[in-house]
Amino acid sequence: MTPALDRIRQNNFLIIGRAGMDLYPDPPGTRTEEAGQFFACLGGSSANIGVAIVKSSGQASLLTSVSDDAIGRFCLNELDKYRVDRTFVKSVGGECRNSLAVVESRVEDHQSVIYRNNAADFQMTEEDVLAPDYSSFAALITTGTVLAAEPSRSACFSAFEQAKDSALPIIFDIDYRPYSWVSGEDAANTYSHAAFFCDVIIGNDDEFDVMAGGPGQGFSFAKKLAAQGTQIVIYKMGEKGSVTFTSEGEEIATGIFKVEALKPTGAGDSFLGVFISSLASNRSLKDSVVRGSAAAALVVSRVGCAPAMPTPEEIDAFIETHPGMSDAG
């Protein structure tokens, strides 16, 4: 690990971004339009990352806004259940509503319907991000959705400034959701500005294409970010695995663990949470990527996202029984 990232070993993280309710048609395999009942659980990428970290024996505090209604209170209760600290989670009234996702536990003809109109988490303000003591954390983690609208965007950049003033590493999951942005150009410009602050950037090939400003440019853009000083850049390619670039010139190709997936969602959140927790446990960069990939494979084979996040013991057992990790594409 590079010296500037040594602080991650403190293993307590401040995470900016949404918490939401996920509804899964039950039993698994049921189409939403044919469902007679649903299974409810915590969702939202940042909340999921927090759960992954806590299940990996780390500590996580979430900084966001939720709606002051039954759905928002559900999210607060779920955060408590998973021991994700919510000291910095604000409830907002008015017409803002919490993120809500209806997600099928099926791969073929999979449907995920996301309700994000007037989203409560976009109401996070610059005043909100001044509340934490940044010096008490190991790193700041955020996902790109936070940057899609105001006042959340300005608040997030203010948090980046606070983190830098406290010499806090910033870990950024691109997490591009087109429906949250006014345009791809706006996303590209905003992401590029965010990259200037970040020590670790993680995304898939499509997301890096958006960040680079055009299709087919993502790989070279990711490599260039590392060359320009971003300490770790992980370029994920789905079934082809991933390539990890470092500012020291390393280029590490890793494959994936092949499993029979129950759903296509949750992999990225579990990857990031377990990857960071593995670095915090003093594992090597490559081993941390491998463990993140194992966590992603486990989560897509289970119902839900937050409840599907694996423990270190489950990851150990999975890797032991799945030694044939595919080669990177």
Provide a descriptive summary of the structure in words.
The chain has 329 residues and is α/β, with parallel strands linked by helices. The chain has one domain: UDP-N-acetylmuramoyl-L-alanine:D-glutamate ligase (3-Layer(aba) Sandwich), CATH 3.40.1190.20. It is built from ten helices and 13 strands. The strands form two sheets. Strands 5-4-1-8-9-10-11-12-13 form a nine-stranded mixed beta sheet, sandwiched between helices. Strands 3-2-6-7 form a four-stranded mixed beta sheet. A hairpin with a 4-residue loop joins β12 and β13. The chain is globular and about 50 Å long.
Give the SSE map.
Elements: E1 12-16, E2 20-26, E3 37-43, H1 45-55, E4 59-67, H2 70-81, E5 85-92, E6 100-103, E7 112-115, H3 126-129, E8 139-143, H4 152-165, E9 170-173, H5 184-195, E10 200-204, H6 205-212, H7 218-227, E11 232-236, E12 242-246, E13 251-254, H8 267-280, H9 285-300, H10 312-321
Parallel strand pairs: 1-4, 1-8, 2-6, 4-5, 8-9, 9-10, 10-11
Antiparallel strand pairs: 2-3, 6-7, 11-12, 12-13
